[in-house]
Amino acid sequence: MKDLINRRNFLRSSVLASTSICTGLPLSGMEFFQNNIAFRKEGSFSFKLGDFACVCLSDGGHSYKVEDFFSNVPTNLVIEELHKKGFPTDNVWTPYTHLYINTGENHVLIDMGAGQLFNTTGELLTNMDIAKIQPESIDKIIITHAHPDHIGGALDQTGNPAFPNAEYFIWKGEWDFWYSKEAFEKAPRIFIELAQKNLDPLKDLMHFIDHESDILPGIKMISAPGHTPGHAVVAISSGAESLFYIGDVVLHPLHLENPDWLPIYDIIPEKAAQSKQKICNLLSETDAWVIGQHFPPFPSLGHVTRHESGWEWLPRKNS
């Protein structure tokens, strides 16, 4: 219990620090951000998956402390690896990438953005508008998990659903966790309060999923607990093509190549490791496309392959 409390206090202090209003990214990180056109200008990326029309949508992103994304590894070792990959080394910049799917029958959105959680987020609705996707057209929303950067944009400024015609899907264990006493032992209160505030107005529109099956034609939720107790991956297939939206099963490509490197944000680290193994093995055994929601650069789209004792991220090549 002592280790759990220490971990929770560490996470809380980190969250409070990162949720304060920022004045800007550190210099080298800001230079990377400004010089990378994929971060600066691309708010959407359209592609076809079989008969489905898909759009990766940016909600912005956030700069995290290196030691928070890689909490059990010497920082100098992480910095060395970040440098090798061409990433900033004084922070970990991650995009917040969401997915829209037009199946021909349904207009589906996966997760709802962070809203105004940071001064570098809240761009989802703007980028939807640019892509000619109206919030009113969304009729199904799948929630991978209820962390603030995934449900922070659920409500508009009046407290009503930002997607007024949608019904919602969430793993039942995820919903139950954020309304449990256990949540106060394992998650920061600020996370719990935001989850309840944003989920409460959606309760009567929510489908609670408790087994792996198609929730819509060609769309399935796969249980992947650990990052949160009810975290889920979304598998999409049309014709001979498939795509996995992995949410926060893996937060950064370096977590693929180094499976033992852990972020502080996994609520149940042992289960998170098991889910990573399960999902990444599945991804590497197929030729499926993958959206690593926080994988830089946007549109966070690529493939996962086997690599030594772990896996490797092969991002889509910019055309």
Question: Would you kindly provide a written description of the structure presented here, covering whatever features stand out?
Answer:
It is a single chain. The chain has about 325 residues and is an alpha/beta fold. The protein has one domain: Ribonuclease Z/Hydroxyacylglutathione hydrolase-like (Metallo-beta-lactamase, Chain A), CATH 3.60.15.10. The chain is built from twelve helices and 14 strands. The chain has helices spanning about 1-20, 25-35, 35-40, 65-70, 75-85, 125-130, 150, 170-180, 180-185, 190-200, 255, 270-285, and strands spanning about 45-50, 50-65, 90-100, 105-110, 140, 165-170, 205-210, 215, 220-225, 230-240, 240-245, 290, 300-305, 310-315. α6 links the parallel β4 (about 105-110) and β5. The protein is globular. Mean pLDDT is about 90; it is low at about 1-40.
Major sheet characteristics = 7 strands, mixed
Note the total helix count: 12
Distance between the termini: 51 Å
> What is the name of the CATH class?
Alpha Beta
Helix content: 25-40%
Strand content: 25-35%
Q: Please, how many domains?
A: 1
Chain oligomer state: single chain
What's the CATH architecture?
A: 4-Layer Sandwich
N-to-C series of helices and strands? HHHEEHHEEHEHEHHHEEEEEHHEEE
Q: Which residues sit in consecutive blocks of at least 5 with pLDDT less than 50?
A: 1-41
CATH fold-level label: Metallo-beta-lactamase, Chain A
CATH superfamily: Ribonuclease Z/Hydroxyacylglutathione hydrolase-like
What would you call the shape?
globular
Give the mean pLDDT: 89
Radius of gyration, taken over Cα atoms and rounded to an integer in Å: 18 Å
